[in-house]
Amino acid sequence: MKPFTAIFHTTLVLFILCLGVYCDGDGDTEMAPMVAPMEKTEQEALYSTIQGFVGTWWNGSDLYPDPCGWTPIQGVSCDLYDGFWYVTALNIGPVQDNSLDCAHNVEFKLHLFELKHLKTLSFLNCFISPRKHPVTIPANIWYKLAGSLESLEFRSNPGLVGQVPTGFGDLRKLQSLVLLENGLSGNLPTIIGNLVSLRRLVIAGNRFTGHIPDNFGGLGELLILDLSRNSLSGPLPTSFGGLSSLLKLDLSNNQLEGDLPSELGNMKNLTLLDLRNNKFSGGLTQSLQEMASLEDMALSNNPIGGDLLSLEWQNLQNLVILDLSNTGLTGEVPESLAELKGLRFLGLNDNNLTGNPSPKLAALPSVTALYLNGNNLTGELKFSGWFYGKMERRFGAWNNPNLCYPVELMSSSHVPFGVKPCDQEVTYLEPDTRTKLGNENGNADQNFHFMASLGFSSHAIDGLWWVFLAEISTMILLWNFFS
Ligand SMILES: *[C@@H]1O[C@H](CO)[C@@H](O)[C@H](O)[C@H]1NC(C)=O
Ligand SMILES: *[C@@H]1O[C@H](CO)[C@@H](O)[C@H](O)[C@H]1NC(C)=O
Ligand SMILES: *[C@@H]1O[C@H](CO)[C@@H](O)[C@H](O)[C@H]1NC(C)=O
Ligand SMILES: *[C@@H]1O[C@H](CO)[C@@H](O)[C@H](O)[C@H]1NC(C)=O
After folding, report:
1. With a threshold of 0.85, does the pTM exceed it?
2. Class of 308-317+332-416 per CATH?
3. How far apart are CA 337 and CA 347, in angstroms?
4. Which atom of ligand 4 is nearest to the CA of 378?
């Protein structure tokens, strides 16, 4: 039964009783504590707190005389402790149409810290003007909520500036700390590493600088760690091996550097590893292959270097997204990648990969995007025309100057975009000239490459192209002959 209905029934019963028997005295004073069994101090603290955020026009005692009962306030939840209502959740900001929107001159009233049983506190889009009205988080008072607060969130508050107060370190019951897309800056406070009950720590999209504190690795209960989109620098602490429960690790878009620590392999339950757009180097650590739950590995845009052959990719059977583009990779594309049956996205573009890509890659059953462009792959691309037709531009092999596709495909309508046909046709077109010229092999081939790199893409394949090709080849061969 909802509190409202309960109270309504109680009131109704009392009313009927009053009608039926002799009712004496002042009903109001008798009934007030039953209708709104809320301590005066708690009620006043709630009104004052909200007024600080939404503006002085807001008169709580007028508008919401019974905030936990029959006049509920949007964004406020209550619970009964020893027969009295207490506020357990306070959500400020435009979540719903009738939510509490923040005023321009928003301020933290210290009454907030008098709410004895507050478990959840969140601010969405509340502090919005960093120039006109910057607001800092109050310091040295959070200990008052230490016994109750489990979830603290500040989302999309560009006007919330300054540092994270060390007072957050007192919130020993905190399970979720979300500081997402605010104007906060400074170092990540080491004290957060003491919040050992944390299961979610999101400090993304602010302006934090400095190193990731070593003791974050002691947050053994953590399931989600997101420090993305700041300006964090320095190495990934080896202590991160202690985050063995972690499901999601997002450190993308920072300036982190150094090796990927082998301790990452301890994160056996990790499903997301996003380290994109940093400065990590030192090669792909072999222990990555121990992250058997991994579904999404995104390491693109890091000077990682090394090769792909050192990992047994077939161990990562849950991989769905593998993005290793622009990571300075060298060496060949291993066939073991073709054993990742669930893989949908494979990005190996813009590296220095060499060798001939195995046609087994085209047999990846779930693949919807496969990028090999911008490498130094060589030889004949032996994927099927059906595959090129299915993938269209979601298969990328362009910008591999020494890669070509078999001539037989030229008659089909599906050829890999930006890849030239192989050059056997020169021999085929000009067998006589060639033999006459006394087996000057090599030259003709090189010239063909030159032509292809002028931009004769697969789109130019028609009768005219053949004629043109024959003419140019003859010209080049003659030119070679006379020079
Ligand atoms: C709210 O209104 C009541 C009268 O309706 C008044 O007594 C009280 O002072 C007001 N409170 C605030 C905080 O303005
Ligand atoms: C990993 O997940 C499994 C299954 O959900 C769970 O039983 C196990 O405790 C988790 N491991 C860690 C280190 O949290
Ligand atoms: C590939 O290697 C060449 C020569 O070793 C180097 O100049 C180039 O920058 C490398 N390209 C990439 C994308 O790493
Ligand atoms: C591409 O590979 C060839 C050998 O296969 C090598 O000679 C050439 O320097 C490489 N190009 C780049 C840009 O690394």
Report:
1. no
2. alpha beta
3. 12
4. 5
